[in-house]
Specification:
Elements lengths: L18 H5 L8 E7 L6 H11 L9 H12 L4 H4 L3 H6 L4 H18 L1 E8 L11 H19 L2 E9 L5 H10 L5 E7 L11 H9 L4 E5 L5 H10 L4 E4 L7 E3 L5 E3 L1 H8 L4 E3 L1 H7 L10 H6 L4 E3 L11 H12 L3 H14 L4 H31 L8
Helix pairs in contact: 2-3, 6-7, 8-9, 15-16
The structure holds inosine and zinc ion.
The site of inosine (NOS) has 18 residues, from strand 2.
């Protein structure tokens, strides 16, 4: 594949940046945007053990950090969403005090810095963190405190998304909580939890409250249920983005000649540029996809949908952004142009003001990508030079 961004400026014919060069990149160096990750799905195993001791929680299956990581990962790979979600009982159990919440949020941003993420949206359900007496407002305040400290210390920008849970009946309260905390770090509202049997339209009151406040909505849809759930998320609930959207694949037909026939829903999502927060590892673990190779991410991407990659639950799915990008690059032969495009897609879809998005694109994304293009082009030229036997 010929890959070049500024051929008109180049004195010589552009060189193909072969897939091998791109795949050999250290993916931590790519400036990344993460919009779909759960705070309670990404704790460090060692921190869980320490926090459990501090809070007197005896329910952990082991107090060896490596074993614990493996335990979470094993439990999450059973091929269905309800079992995937079981591990959260333990992470939530150790996130019940102000100190614990501040720490987990702070460590999240430190992990983001190590992974090369420059802007992250993190989500969680405050209602799960009141077992020891914190109010939901105190819970949000503590998480924001940890995130603010993390922003100062690690230079990673963030936005917080509050989740309502689809099997509960208090989504309106969750929406009101999100609205109360907007302008203080909360940037949007989500609906999470088991999808099957819990249609988003049950929560229209919550979504209408968000819409009336001119606020932002993303909804988990099309992960464990089909296009009907995606359609409800968009047309009943007014979602601005979709969490996963994987099963939108069922609304796209591949004709024998390889061309695509889009159903009305898929065409709408394409035309309206609805962002799809895709999560490869998590989808394979929950059974939304049988394998990485069969994941519709590349199909969507190459058909022009506004897609980008995410981690979902770094602990449960044993992943990080660099890993997801490497995996996608190797599985689908992504080029550097495609990686950059996907990162731009994510930044454009963030729930922060337009000016902030443009600023991050200019300051954090474009310069690093330009440098990487230059570096890889130089490497490709160097490979073509005849070997000089006098220089070792
Ligand atoms: O992939 C997912 N699909 C649906 N719900 C999820 C997923 N990962 C986590 N949660 C749910 O969201 C809550 C708030 O963060 C978690 O407690 C978990 O129950
Ligand atoms: Zn999720």
């Amino acid at each position: 594949m010929i890959e070049h961004r500024y051929p008109e400026f180049h004195p010589v014919a552009p060189l193909p940046l072969g897939a091998d060069l791109v795949a050999a990149l250290d993916f931590r160096r790519l400036p990344k945007i993460l919009l779909h990750e759960h705070l309670d799905g990404g704790l460090r195993p060692a921190s869980i053990i320490e926090l459990a001791k501090e809070q007197g929680y005896n329910g952990l299956p082991t107090d060896d950090a490596e074993q614990l990581a493996m335990w979470f990962h094993r439990g999450a790979q059973r091929g269905n969403l309800p079992e995937y979600l079981e591990g959260f009982a333990h992470t939530i159990a150790v996130m019940q005090t102000k100190e614990a919440l501040v720490r987990v949020a702070y460590e999240f941003l430190e992990d983001m810095a190590v992974d090369g993420v420059v802007y992250a949206e993190i989500r969680f359900a405050p209602v799960f963190h009141t077992e020891k007496g914190l109010t939901q407002d105190e819970v949000v305040e503590a998480v924001l405190e940890g995130l603010e400290r993390g922003r100062r210390d690690f230079g990673v920008e963030f936005g917080l998304i509050l989740c309502a849970m689809r099997d509960r009946t208090d989504s309106l309260e969750a929406a009101e909580l999100a609205i109360r905390w907007r302008d203080k770090g909360v940037v949007g509202f989500d609906l999470a939890g088991g999808e099957y049997g819990h249609p988003p339209k049950k929560h229209v009151d919550a979504f209408h409250a968000i819409q009336r406040a001119n606020f932002y909505i993303t909804i988990h849809a099309g992960e464990a249920f089909g296009p009907e759930s995606i359609w409800q998320a968009l047309q009943w609930c007014g979602a601005h983005r979709l969490g996963h959207g994987t099963r939108l694949r069922n609304d796209i037909e591949i004709r024998p000649d390889g061309s695509l026939k889009l159903g009305r829903l898929a065409q709408y999502i394409l035309d309206r540029r609805i962002p799809l927060e895709m999560c490869l590892s998590s989808n394979v673990h929950t059974g939304a996809c049988a394998s990485f190779e069969e994941h519709p991410f590349a199909l969507f991407h190459r058909a022009g949908f506004r897609v980008f990659l995410n981690t979902d639950d770094r602990l449960m799915s044993d992943t990080e952004m660099s890993k997801e990008l490497a995996l996608a690059t190797r599985t689908f032969g992504l080029s550097l142009v495609e990686l950059e495009k996907m990162t731009m897609n994510a930044m454009k879809s963030a729930f922060v003001p337009h000016e902030t998005r443009v600023d991050l694109i200019r300051r954090r994304l474009l310069p690093t990508y330009s440098m990487l293009f230059a570096e890889l082009t130089a490497e490709a030229f160097a490979k073509q030079l005849p070997r000089n036997p006098h220089l070792s």
